[in-house]
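Q: Could you write out the predicted structure for this multi-component system? I'm mainly interested in how the pieces pack against one another.
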Amino acid sequence: MGTKVNLISGRTIVQGQNLDNKLSEAYFNEVATCELNGSDMEKLGVAADERVKIKTSFGEVVVKAKEKAGTPEGVIFIPMGPWANALVSGDTHGAGMPSYKGIDAEIEPTEEEILQVKALMKTYME
Amino acid sequence: MVEITDVVCSLCGCVCDDIVVEVEDNKVTKVKKGACAVGKSKLMGHGRIEEPAIRENGSLKACSYDDAIKKAAEILAAARRPLLYGWSSTVCEADKVGVELAEEIGAVIDNTASVCHGPSVLAIQDVGLPSCTLGEVKNRADLIIYWGANPAAAHANHMKRYSYISKGYWTEEGKKNKKLVVVDVRRTATAKMADVFLQIEQGKDYLVFSALRALLYGYEDVVPDEVGGISKKDLLETVKMMKESKFGITFFGMGVTHTRGRHNNIVNAIEMTRAAHTHTKFSIMPMRGHYNVAGINQVCTWETGFPFAVDLTRGYAWYNPGEVSATDLLIRRECDAALIIASDPGAHFPGESIRHLAKIPVIQIDPFANPTTEFADVVIPAAISGVEAEGNVYRMDNIPIRLRKLVDTEYIADEEIMKRILDEVRAIREKGGN
C-alpha cells in the first residue's frame, strides 16, 4: 500500500505554452509529472525523474516525480491534463464541478512505464 | 515583412490587446512586444489538424469539408440526447450559432465554465458580485489579493497589465505603493512576490473567508488562534491591510472553485468583500481561464437566459448544473452524441466522464489535434481565432474586445463551420418531416 497524500492539480507555464500542442514531447514532459516536497520524496525513497504510481478510488496513473519546495508535506501536485484527470471522479456533488483538488490518493515508487497521451486515451476506448 | 500593432491575444482571460507582431509570407514570424510566454507560444503557432477527417474502421481518413460537415450533421440530426460542449476558445459569433443549433436539435449546450468557474457563476446568481473592470483595478487598487490563483503561471501578464505591477492614474508609483496578499496551498511563484503569503491548508478556504469576515466586522473574540493552517496574527495583519487600503480587490482562481465547498467558497468570498465595504472600497473578480469563456457565458445568457449547462430538449431552456452539466451527463451515460468545439474534454474532463465520451459519436471542431482527437469520429479543422479569423470576445471582466485577423488561411472559421452544420441539420430534418 502506498503513502496517503492529498492530490491537487493546476496550471503551469509550460502546460499553458503547449495547450495547443498536447500530443508533443514538451507537453508530456511537463504534464505527466508529479510535484512533491523534498522530504516526502525522501520518505518515499524517490529521486527526481524517477517514476511514481498514484492511485485513487477512480483510477491509477504512472508519472515522473519532481521536487518542488513550495509544495507542503502530504500534498502532491500534478499539472492539469490527462494524467491528473485519470485520477479524478466524475461526481460533481450536484454542483456540475468535479473535485479536481483535494483528492485522497496513495503514492508509491514504481518501475512501470508512463503512458503516452495516445495510449492513455486508448484505455478509455476499451 | 509587415509589423502589426494592437494585436489581441486569444489565449487566456486577460485578452491583452497591445501586442506587436511581425508577419512575413503570411506567417507570424516574431512576437515583438506585449505577449507573455504563453500568449507568445499561441501566436507563433503549433502543428495543425491538416484536413477534415472521418473515422472509418478505427482510423481517421481524410475527407473534404463538405463530407465532414455532412457527416457531423447526420450524427447530430439522428441523436436523441446530443451534447454541444466547449465554446470558450472561439468567438461569440460562433457561440451564437451553437445556441441556435442546440435549439434546433434539442441538445444540451454547456461550456468550459462547467469545469472552471461554474461554481463562481452559481455563487454570483446566489449573492451577486460587487465587481469592477480591470481598468478600475489598474487605476485605483492599492491592495491586491490573489486567492487560489497563480497568475505567474496561468495569467502571466495579469499583474503587469492590470494589478500589482501596473501603473495607473491614481497608482502611478506602481507596486511601490501597493500591497500584495497571496492565499494558496503551495508557495507558488506568485506567492513568492507577496507582502503577506497565507499558506492555507488544502480545502479550508471556506473557514478562512469566514474568519476574515468575522474580523472585518469586529468579532475578533470568535476567531481561534489558527484557522485553516493560518495564524490569527497573519489574519489580523491581512485585515489591517484590507481596512487601510483605499481600494482592494480579490482575484480568485480554481484553487477555490475546484475544491471542497465549491460555490459556497465563492459565496463566502463575496460576503467577505461586503464585510470589507464597511471600511473601504473593495471588489472581487474571478480569474477566467479561456479568452472567451466569459463571452460564451454572455451569449448563452442572452440567448437562453442561462450562462452554462442549458438543456434545450424540452423546447425551452432548462438550467440545472449538477444535472445537465457535461460531466454529469457523461457520468450518467445519457448523451448519445457530442459536438466538441474549441475545447478539449479528452485532456480536461475526469477520466470517469471521458470513458463514455470515447464511446459515443464525437464531432471535433478545433485548429489543433489534442487528446479529444484520439476518439473523435469526425474532425473538422478550424481557422485560429485571433490569428486567422476575427470576432468578438469578452475579457475576464466582461469587457468585449474584437480579435484581429493577422494572416490569411484556407481553413474555415468556427462561425462558418457551425452555420454550415446548422444548414445541413435543417435540410435533413426538413427531409425527414421534422
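A: Regarding packing and overall arrangement: The two ends of chain B are 53 Å apart (CA to CA).
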